[in-house]
Every structure is written in C-alpha cells, then in structure tokens.
What does this fold into?
Amino acid sequence: MMDSNMTPHHFTAQVYYEDTDHSGVVYHANYLKFFERAREDIMGTKVLADMWHKHEIGFAIYKINIGYHEGAIFGDRLDIRTTWKKEGHYRIIFFHEAWRPDGKKAAVTCTLELVCLGPNKKLMPIPDLDFLKSKE
Amino acid sequence: MMDSNMTPHHFTAQVYYEDTDHSGVVYHANYLKFFERAREDIMGTKVLADMWHKHEIGFAIYKINIGYHEGAIFGDRLDIRTTWKKEGHYRIIFFHEAWRPDGKKAAVTCTLELVCLGPNKKLMPIPDLDFLKSKE
Amino acid sequence: MMDSNMTPHHFTAQVYYEDTDHSGVVYHANYLKFFERAREDIMGTKVLADMWHKHEIGFAIYKINIGYHEGAIFGDRLDIRTTWKKEGHYRIIFFHEAWRPDGKKAAVTCTLELVCLGPNKKLMPIPDLDFLKSKE
Amino acid sequence: MMDSNMTPHHFTAQVYYEDTDHSGVVYHANYLKFFERAREDIMGTKVLADMWHKHEIGFAIYKINIGYHEGAIFGDRLDIRTTWKKEGHYRIIFFHEAWRPDGKKAAVTCTLELVCLGPNKKLMPIPDLDFLKSKE
It folds into this structure.
C-alpha cells in the first residue's frame, strides 16, 4: 500500500468574469480556489461535509508554494491536474497544475501541504480516507 | 418568435469553502457569481469570449433584485434555474433561482437586467444571439 | 426618538486588483462587499463580533435592490454613503451609494433589508443597538 | 543606495464576513488579497494606476511561498508587516506577515516575487520607482 497517487486526477475549472482582474487575466489568488475545488473532488465533497458537520473535523492548509508561468483568460477551461501523497501520519502533500487549453506547459504550478484539525482546532492524525488508498 | 425562454435552464453550482462565510452559510454576494455562471452557460462562453476579445462587446448589469429565503451550506449542489426574456431592443431580463438539494422552495431568487456595451462602454442594441431565439 | 439616521455615514472603499474583472471595472458582486464593510463600520465591528462569538446572534440579509450607473476602476477611492432606518421590530433598511472620486452622481445605489437571527437561525427582534439610536 | 527596505511597513486589514469561510477563520486564499493591498499602499496606488492606465505597465506575481500558523477571525484587525528588496534588474521580493491583535508570532507569513510586464505582457526591467529608493 502506497498512500499516494501519482496518476494525475483531472478537474475542469472554467474561468468566469469573477475569476479575472482588470489586467485581463485570472487574479493570482483565485488559482487557489480552483485547486481547492479539485481537492474536494478528489476527497469527496460528501465525505468532507460529513466530517465537518458531524465530527467537526476539517483539513487546514499549512504551506503553499506557487509558481505563475502564464495567465489564464476569460473563457478558458482549465485542466487542473493533481497528484498527492501522505507524508507521515500528519501531512498530505498535493501537487497541482493548471493547464490552459492547448497549453504546452502548466500555466500555474502549486505544492500544498494539508494537516487535519479536530474539534477545537486540535491537530490530529490524517484519517483513513478512501482517496488515500493506493489505486493499485 | 418570442425572444424569451420560459422553460428553466438548469445549471449546477457546487458550494465550496470559498463560497461560505463564518456564519456557516453562503456569503450573500456569492449567489451573484452562481447566477453569472449560469448566464454564461446559457449564452455560451465561447460566444461571449469572442464578443469580448474580438469586438470589445460585453454585457453589463443594470439592475438586480435579490431575495434571500434560506442559506445554502458547504457541500450543497445548488440547482440554478434560469428563465429570461428580451425587453425592447436594449434589455434582457433574467430570472434566477437557487434551489438547495431537496428544497421545497427556492433558497434565493433574483431578477437581473442586462444591457449591452460596445467599444468605449457605449450602449448598443442587444445583438441577435442564439440563446435569444425562441425554442419553439 | 427616530430609530433612523438620514445624515449619510461616509466610508472609504479603495478599489484593488481583487475587486475588478477583465472588463476593466469593478465586478458587480463586489459592491456588496463594500456596502457590508460600511455597515460593519456603522454597527461597530466589536459589537457585531461579540454578538456573534458570545451570543450566536447575527444579521442576515433578506432583500437587496441594486442599480448600476457607472463602473468604478482600479485606484478609485469610493465614498460609500449610507443612511438607514429601522422598520417595525424586525427589519433594518440600509440605503447605500458608491460615489467615484469627482462623480456627479452615485455610481451604484443599493437598498438592503436586514433581519436578525439568533441561535439556530431563529428570527428575533432587532436588538437595541447604539447605531439605531437617534443622533438628535 | 540599497534598493531595499527592511524596516517593516504597517498596513491594517480588517477581517470582514467576506474574508472568512464556514470553518470560522479567514479563507486561505484571502491573505493574498491583504498582502496585495499592503503592496499597493507601499507602491502608491496612484503610481500603479497611472503605470497601468497610461503606459500598460503592471507588476505580475512570479512565485509565492506561504506558511499558515494560526487562523484569523471575523473582527480581527490584522497588522500586515512588509519588507522588500529588489533583486537584480527584474525582480522585487516582498516579505509579508499577518499579525493578529495580541499575537505572539505572525499568523501567516509570505514571500512573494514580482516581475514587471509592459505592453503585450513583455518582461521589462523594474522601473525606478520611489518605494525602491533607500530610506537612509
């Protein structure tokens, strides 16, 4: 068992007016929203909603590194490619890329570390969730 | 020909962390984003992107009335139901509703008037777009 | 005693990148954020934070009417002018205007009705808060 | 001449409803908005607006590293402390910290690299702006 998944998960994020700024491209902070939507698609929204509403358990972001290489524009359907791995008992690392249609390389790349917080925001080991199980 | 469409168009807007606020429900302004995504789905994003990037023509919002009846929460998949009609040569009116899963009535309702602006933000007649053609 | 205040309250909202969209002006939904910041300035953030964190009481928006007359741009320092009145025991109505620097008329106007929700989102009478006391 | 400024610049960012999410703290991406407001305060909004509207020159973000240590809540007035330095002809590096009221250490820390883009998004040397001049 590997506790990781290195075959990219694909999620489509469409660029709407709300995502752009007056320079004509997507506002830099908004890629973090696209990446979070992808993670929720991977983890399962119902799983996350139940963890939160029934057990007060949620994921918190601990660290983010982002690189911006090209600006996405209104109308782009971005392909968000994500791989991830569990590290130790307390951390999950996600590797996100945002690809523009017909892009030759990723427009934006991101490495993001998550930890898990229980009631009263107390750090707890990552629960044994389905998306962390090896696909092999 | 009717220049209107009274059979609701359906669009799904999933409620993510980004959409909620600390009171536990969707932040009031964010429903306007869901409604805009639905309008772009209706009008065709490629049509809108081409209008904007090639001809500097875009739609601008002139008036909005919103009623809030129930708060949507994280994990909800909202059904955005939209009808619309053209009024005169210069206005399109959209009627949006956001329905929660298993909702007995609309959680949020919205009437929104659009006008069309050409280069230099000059008011112009609504172009003859496909989504305005009667479905009959 | 009047339970209203018809001398406008002034609040400055600066337009940042985050507020604009690729059409070059402020994204329509973002004026609602400016108006909310003004209301919190009027009501007192500490009062609101205490109501929420200690008593689980908060204000919820019930209805909004907005009119858009001119687009604000990056760098504008908007003057948000607000008056308000209490109506009956359960509603407060706010009248907001966003003025651009050197504007001849309001760029955006908004009428907004608030109600008060206690624990479990139960409707309750508007509390006897300082900002509702007549200034006369 | 140093092309750097290591005495922190202070900027206050108030946490409003719009900034929080349903977990009760500020949504992770929104600290990037606070940091950008601080940078615009440092650079001078009028300078930036003129660069953009008159010369089509703007700053673009190239890289960001963020660390999250504590969550800010509704009503917090965050002290955004910023230092910066120019590196070579093409890069400015900003060091941002968000401090909660009575915080013992920074709640969020961020290192951010900016480059300068001229018309057609072409990379250009950093202009000789006032905020880059040594204060000594």
